[in-house]
Write a structure and sequence with these properties.
By secondary structure, the protein is an alpha+beta fold. The protein folds into two domains: 4-233, 3-Layer(bab) Sandwich (Hsp33 domain), CATH 3.55.30.10; 239-284, CBS domain Like (Alpha-Beta Complex). It has helices at 24-30, 37-54, 105-108, 139-151, 178-187, 189-198, 202-207, 210-218, 239-249, 251-260, 279-284; strands at 4-10, 15-22, 61-70, 73-81, 85-92, 112-122, 128-133, 155-161, 166-173, 223-224, 229-230, 232-233, 264-267, 274-277. The strands form three sheets. Strands 1, 2, 8, 9, 10 and 11 form a six-stranded antiparallel β-sheet that branches. A six-stranded mixed β-sheet has the order 7-6-3-4-5-12, covered by helices on one side. Strands 13-14 form a two-stranded antiparallel ribbon. The structure holds zinc ion (ZN). Zinc ion (ZN) binds at residues 235, 237, 268, 270-271, 273.
Length: 291
């Protein structure tokens, strides 16, 4: 049951949802740095959230969540693409407040001038960036507020993480036709499904598999499950991307770097891959040769 995303539909009802469970991929990502416990828990929730949100997009590309703040916490980001590949990274200064955590609220409570960005980057087409106020206690609360204010799609998100496993569930009310709308009003369906979802405890979300979670919550509904999707850690770094970064900083900056470091060493912060550019390669990017 490691690293899965299970979509579900409730029959005859305009509600869809996703359940995400992370274990092995979370281990891999959290072992890439020596993170404090509260940072691990925050990254677990952020990774789960990106995997849930990625499923709501109909694009080839990636979605990332990035939290930035002043003070000892600097930033954290998590990303998921349409292939279910996830990665995450955080930067912060040691702080005893990060030593223990129940959930994302531990870190969020310490943030000074925090901002949460939602970035959607299709492989083709325009990028989108949403800015979310971080004024709710938990990451899930902040994301639901974003959907309420910006996307106006009724959305319920629950997230939970330990330093070992993470789990999350998202339900959305889809656009309705008038008959369905009347049915929803008659049945009080959305509030009822929301209340059921709130009965889920953090440890259930982390420990149980998707089918068990859905059975516990919605066993009175007719829940349909399409095929489960795999999630995995993967990094999108490459020598070509490093070359793009060198081109971005410009030939003069590259020459200055070569004066200090030749060949130029570039390390991927996510996966610790090393890339190297000789002076000839680096200058060749600008059509220049060694003189
Ligand atoms: Zn990498």
């Amino acid at each position: 049951m490691s690293d899965l995303r299970q979509r579900f539909y409730i029959e005859n009802c305009p509600i869809r949802g996703e359940v995400v469970h992370l274990e092995q991929a979370l281990h891999t990502i959290l072992a890439q740095r020596d993170y404090a416990e509260a940072i691990k828990v925050l990254l677990g929730e952020m990774l789960t959230a990106t995997a849930l949100l990625a499923s709501t997009l109909k694009i080839q590309g990636r979605i990332s969540l990035q939290i930035q703040a002043e003070g000892s916490f600097k930033w954290a980001m998590a990303e998921c693409n349409h292939l279910g590949e996830i990665r995450a990274l955080a930067d912060y200064e040691a702080d005893p407040r990060f030593d223990h955590a129940q959930d994302s609220s531990t870190v969020l409570a310490t943030l000074v001038s925090p901002v949460l960005f939602i970035n959607i980057e299709p492989e083709k087409g325009e990028r989108y960036q949403g800015i979310v106020p971080l004024d709710k206690a938990t990451l899930a609360g902040c994301l639901m507020q974003y959907y309420d204010l910006s996307a106006q799609i009724p959305t319920k998100i629950v997230l939970a993480s330990t330093t070992q496993c993470a789990g999350g569930l998202l339900i959305q009310l889809l656009p309705r036709n008038s008959e369905e709308e009347q049915q929803l009003i008659d049945d009080d369906l959305w509030p009822r499904i929301n209340l059921l979802t709130e009965t889920l405890k953090a440890d259930e979300l982390i420990e149980l598999d998707a089918q068990e979670i859905l059975y516990r919550l919605y066993n009175e509904e007719d829940v349909r499950l399409p095929e489960v999707e795999q999630l995995k850690f993967a990094c999108t770094c490459s020598k070509a991307r490093c070359a793009d970064a060198l081109i971005q900083i410009g030939v003069n900056a590259v020459k200055e770097t070569l004066d200090i470091q030749n060949p130029i060493q570039m390390d991927c912060q996510f996966c610790n891959s090393h890339y190297q550019f000789s002076a000839e390669e680096a200058l060749g990017l600008f059509g220049q040769h060694l003189s």
